[in-house]
Amino acid sequence: MTDFAAVEKGHELPPITVHLTRADLVRYAGASGDRNPIHWSDRVATGAGLPGVIAHGMLTMALAGRVVTNWTGDPSSVRSYGTRFTRPVVVPDDDEGAEVELTGTVSNVEDDDGTRVATVDLAARFDGKTVLGRARAEVVLPS
């Protein structure tokens, strides 16, 4: 359990490792309405110049956001969150899928009229390479 009153710059959030499978992509496509075939068809994905079927960028972004919401225990604690998509997560058509490692580090803590707000730099890595750039969330720390 985190003592949020003691959180300061450099604090590392508990990491998460997620295994994405093609079934996860199909479920996300249904929930999000993004049924682009690059997220389920190898033929279409490679025809578009991709190395294979790729995970939805917004799914990868959401998974990285879980690092913050798992840490605070409250999704409404996130004031803002943004990122750039730098590299795709290629999800093979097998039972193992793709492993994405998600981490976060507090880069700043400020007092905003009695409310402590942390800036958290997030990282998502697939195959040892970063897949999100400038991933940053502003989070109200629990009191």
Automatic annotation (TrEMBL):
<protein>
    <submittedName>
        <fullName>Acyl dehydratase</fullName>
    </submittedName>
</protein>
<dbReference type="GO" id="GO:0006633">
    <property type="term" value="P:fatty acid biosynthetic process"/>
</dbReference>
<comment type="similarity">
    <text>Belongs to the enoyl-CoA hydratase/isomerase family.</text>
</comment>
<dbReference type="GO" id="GO:0004312">
    <property type="term" value="F:fatty acid synthase activity"/>
</dbReference>
<dbReference type="Pfam" id="PF01575">
    <property type="entry name" value="MaoC_dehydratas"/>
</dbReference>
<dbReference type="InterPro" id="IPR003965">
    <property type="entry name" value="Fatty_acid_synthase"/>
</dbReference>
<dbReference type="GO" id="GO:0005835">
    <property type="term" value="C:fatty acid synthase complex"/>
</dbReference>
<feature type="domain" description="MaoC-like">
    <location>
        <begin position="16"/>
        <end position="106"/>
    </location>
</feature>
<dbReference type="InterPro" id="IPR002539">
    <property type="entry name" value="MaoC-like_dom"/>
</dbReference>
<dbReference type="InterPro" id="IPR029069">
    <property type="entry name" value="HotDog_dom_sf"/>
</dbReference>
